[in-house]
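Could you show me just one protein sequence together with its fold in token form as a worked example?
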Amino acid sequence: MDYLGFRLRNNLFVAPMAGVTDRPFRQLCKRLGAGLAVSEMVTSNSLLYGSAKTLRRADHRGEVEPIVVQIAGADPEMMAQAARYNVERGAQIIDINMGCPAKKVCNVYAGSALMQDEALAARILEAVVRAVPDTPVTLKMRTGWNRANKNAPRLARIAESCGIRALAIHGRTRADQYMGEAEYDTIALVKTLVSIPVIANGDINTPEKARAVLDYTGADGVMIGRAAQGRPWLFREIEHYLATGEHLPPPSPAEIRALLLEHLEDLYAFYGETTGVKVARKHISWYTKGLVGSAAFRQRMNRLETVAEQREAIDEFFGELASRGIEPLETTDEVCA
């Protein structure tokens, strides 16, 4: 896929997720079939540029291009400064967050709160595009602020007129948070109104769903977030299905173990042992969800404090699955635990 001057492997995008889409996760998803991955949201507050968290989020060493950095904020000049700052540090595409529904983001009028003020949104878009004239700027948003105000079609046209080069739209309003089901009618409408690429996002969790959303909306690609947590191989499954109409076999417990351990080693190296162990817990939980005995395993895992203990527990858990001949996704009622 040709996208903003870059040749991508395919039209499957990793959605930006705070606390999830760090460099180790982005690299793994790209290796397993994603065409593009967007970084965690980076604040536009220049006072935080030197924080350890911000510096980690801006660390793209060894990452497969293109490097996409998402910025968030409500002040046009600060957003422009943030764009310049990140481009100077290697960002090849700047993405503007107008889709995050979190209260702490919306309470400072950033994220999807900006959809309430189209004039301010336009000033931000213009300021960022002007600040980095040689770098493509994209926008991620929702269908609207609430179901009575689905203004994504209007904002999409504003964005295009401001010089935004591509749009990603989550099929829910800010008020919906992540409740209910995503709708794709608004995304399909936006696709008819603009000439820039439109990426569909929301509830895309199987190869069949990806195919259906692409067909229904006419979108240029799909963006996958929560469904890839603990399932980074979902991208290769979708890629294969879109190309052949056939399903790849699910990963075996042995492959899940190998991918999990590879991911964890990158996390330990990226964050250091103390923080790495804490970050690893949620990934271990996601990778093992649905496997027989995983509920008790996750409870135990959350009490372990060292890298060595985590590695040993993972070896024991997957060793037990192998000895019992458990099928890849054989589940029990523990899935909901």
The chain is about 45% helix and 15% strand. The first helix runs from residue 23 to 31.
